[in-house]
Amino acid sequence: MLNRVWMLLAAALMATLAEPADGTAECGGGTPCRIDGGEYYMALPDGWQGGPAVMFLHGYGSSGAKVIANSGLVAGFIRRGYAVLAPSGLPWQEGKPADWSVRDGWNTYPRNDLAFLRDVLADAAARAGVAPDQLLLSGFSRGGSMVWEVACLAPEFAAAYAPAAGGFWLPMTQDCKGPVRLLHIHGFTDKVVPLEGRLIQGAAAEIVQADIWEGLQLWRRENGCPSNAAEHQAENGIWRKRWKCQAGGLELILHKGGHSLPMGWSAMALDWFESLGR
Length: 278
Description:
- By secondary structure, the chain is α/β, with parallel strands linked by helices.
- It has seven helices and 14 strands.
- The chain has one domain: Alpha/Beta hydrolase fold, catalytic domain (Rossmann fold).
- β13 and β14 form a beta hairpin.
- The model is unreliable at 1-24 (pLDDT under 50).
- This is Polyhydroxybutyrate depolymerase.
């Protein structure tokens, strides 16, 4: 009987230790952090005491779980002392792949993702000491489009934005809420999200990726940038353009590949982010 009591006490103690002070369940690595509206995954550097983070939005049909399991992608940020937050999108319709609430003429997506991402950041700050004012928001493909969307609708959400292989969709907004610091990365031979945009064939409605160059023109207008880039660099299959703007900042990196991230991409993004003097 006494042994049974001790076993029950031990079980209760372990359950208590598995819960942080605010009562939310522990999470990290392959265990999702669950909040109202969805879930996200989190990876922290060894010896983490709080600090900057990269929030990375997955591509169409993927998930936060797949992002956090991508050791190559995550390690590039962890080594530099950044937490990685990987939220999961929702199916845009029952039985369909996971997506994000990008404005594209469809009205079936079930969640306000801007509000959801705000909740993710607040939860990560409470759980792990992520600094909201030291956030780099990034994402790939459709996730990159969502990065453009957040930057446009809520420029104050992140300290800076580093989308890859994704931009606005039609009908494209003509007015954002303010200047941002944005680094856009794109493959020169990308056929999935071409620089010049494309119509998605076979869709129930006309779904069109906007011209990336037209989107960059909008960012130049929002940031008060001149038409011509002030700085150019080309080496090892990487082409860079940097504009000197009145507010925010704008840089473009093109690589010789297709719908992919270039080798060393995380270092490029973090070098740029840290050069901003946040």
